[in-house]
Amino acid sequence: SRRKLGKIKKIPAITLDGTVITLLANIELPSDCATAMESGASGVGLFRSEFLFMGRIGTQHELPTEDEQFESYRQAVTAMKGRPVTIRTLDVGADKPLNVEEQTALNPALGLRAIRYCLAEPQLFLTQLKAILRASAFGPVKLLIPMLAHAFEIDQTLAMIDRAKQELRSEKIKFDEHIKIGAMIEIPAAALALPMFIKRMDFLSIGTNDLIQYTLAIDRVDHEVAHLYNPLHPAVLYLLSTVIALGRKAGIPVSVCGEMAGDVKFTRLLLGMGLLEFSMHPAQLLAVKQEILNSDLDGLIAQTKKILRNTEPSAIAAAVNQMRANPT
Ligand code: PEP
Ligand code: MG
């Protein structure tokens, strides 16, 4: 019930065996930080910065300026009162068009979106990177890059960040020199070639919304195939568990920031895979926390191992439901 959930707002998310789990909020605008703080989030795990850019149909100079973006990022950082804010660089294209008139791609989800778009528009990207870096002088900020798949994209992105830093230095503007840079793992190729990311990145964040879309070849916004969008498909579980395990083995933080992280049906399964960081819509946070407070990790790890060996979808679904039904 609501009242019961309210009681756990201030206590940390710790499993019965004492493992601390970090619960973070997904936000779209700085004003969402109030709800994030209210929910007891330990920080922002995903700031979808494209919402500052959307609805400004037209040409480039109608896009938010560096100062305007900086103000928004700083506002979020200040509102989170010392808790980390993970700002994802522009993820436009596909279901989030910047300019409706430009929507001509036949397969927008496979087209020029997110980091591909930013690397094709270096001035726009540089402006955003400088604005984010400037906000990092006001509290802990992390940079998150969407839709990376290729090593050269990572290298070009890192070079752009260095250039943004260099420009700020010459302008004598303060920023966090050691800002952490992470990659969204949301293209199957990225999950399957994870060492390439582990080598170059400070942290990883799994975007299950796109990872499922691309793994199963299901358009996430097409209602006609929505029944085929199954987070428990063995291929999806394989990718998820592999990324979490390899990240942990390499000692680099891994979070999940797609819808799966905020769905209590999957909390125990993700815990069983070894996930320590969940980022979700603030409205889901207390329910997920309650699930964690009643979970015993050893039991869940054993059950998850069995589930990952299973290849029968109905048996997997039943086993995942079973995990939830049995308070350990
Ligand atoms: C995802 O793909 O899971 C994700 C978190 O990003 P978005 O939903 O904004 O694409
Ligand atoms: Mg995504």
TrEMBL record:
Task: List, for all copies, the residue spans of the domain called PEP-utilising enzyme C-terminal.
Answer: 3-295
Q: What is its EC number?
A: 2.7.3.9
Reactions catalysed, as given in the entry: L-histidyl-[protein] + phosphoenolpyruvate = N(pros)-phospho-L-histidyl-[protein] + pyruvate
Provide the cofactor list for this protein.
Mg(2+)
Q: Does the keyword Hydrolase apply?
A: no
Molecular functions per Gene Ontology = phosphoenolpyruvate-protein phosphotransferase activity
Subcellular location(s) per record: Cytoplasm
Q: What does this protein do?
A: General (non sugar-specific) component of the phosphoenolpyruvate-dependent sugar phosphotransferase system (sugar PTS). This major carbohydrate active-transport system catalyzes the phosphorylation of incoming sugar substrates concomitantly with their translocation across the cell membrane. Enzyme I transfers the phosphoryl group from phosphoenolpyruvate (PEP) to the phosphoryl carrier protein (HPr).
What is the protein name for this chain?
Answer: Phosphoenolpyruvate-protein phosphotransferase
Give the gene name. ptsP
- Residues of the whole record sequence present: 258 to 585 of 592
